[in-house]
Write a structure and sequence with these properties.
single chain; alpha/beta; 5-stranded mixed sheet; 15 helices; 42% helix; globular
Amino acid sequence: MLRVFVISLVVAFTATHLAAADNPPAIRIGISSIGVGGRPFIGGNVIGLVHAQGLLEQEFAPDGIKVEWTFNKGAGPAVTEELVNGLIDLATQGDLPLVVHRSSQVKTKLLIATLNSSHTYLAVKPESAFQSLNDLVGHRMALFKGTAGQLLTARLLALKGLKEQDFLTITLDVSASLPALLSGDVDCMWGGTNLLELEDAGKVRIVFSTREMPPVPKRPCSTGAIFADAGFEQRYPTIIQRFVNVYVRTAAWASDPAHVDEVIALWSKSGTSEAVYRRDIGGESLAPRLSPLFDEGFLVNLHAGAQAALDARLIRAPVDFDGWIEPRYLEHALAEFGLTDRWHSRAVNQQPTATSHP
């Protein structure tokens, strides 16, 4: 009996040990943004909601798996550096850094689309004489190069018959652009909801915005994705599926118009006010912004972004799209939670149905 008991203990220990080995000790997530003043929160997207509510921590705590978040002031390029140095397992990035590391043969798998259809703004000092984008040709423009913002700016300028070389471009990150504008070192700067808040405070004046353009996908926007290091995805497919499940449930909840107040309140933890988010959203549905689908709007913008990067010589080789997108995790989550018809292509304007909180 003692021998049987000892064998049972050994079998139980071995099974437990093997199960633990099947899980990573931590899931390391790189975020290509950071909140106002360095706050470790972001708004305007689903991953910010997942983080603010601790949903991944709740999912993986029973398994003893830690969730580690890194928020990057250096945006997409900083995430790429973390990726190539083996410091993160999953991450968010915009299209330019995505196509840069894909073109450079860095191995990743795109898991979820994060098409950013929020608006883009161009601001000047309130007292300046500039009244339009064309007025700024030949003048100093602050631009965070190497980021999705650079690629989006190039596409927006092209629609107006302009290019980056028509301006005196000065490379500055978002936090450095405003002081440079206010001191007169640059004449204009690009941004998102941060510029709405600054305009409300009387610090800047917006002279151009994508509100003047048609909706997505006709209007260029910043395409991005949640991706995994290819090796991590291959080793831990069950972990990837659980991550995607949490994300999809959250996206469905946040896409319900009944939850917009809760969504905006969570986003405001980033330091951007609720009033600014409401102004940027206007009367638009959040569903197209938060859709995880690899749909027409996403694919059109990603392919266009890759081509624009090649044309601008920001990458040396064309992007190979074969096998880059891994849709099986997203498709499984949509089917499991009955969300296959939850979102429609961002080429059309459809209203989602109600969904309970994740």
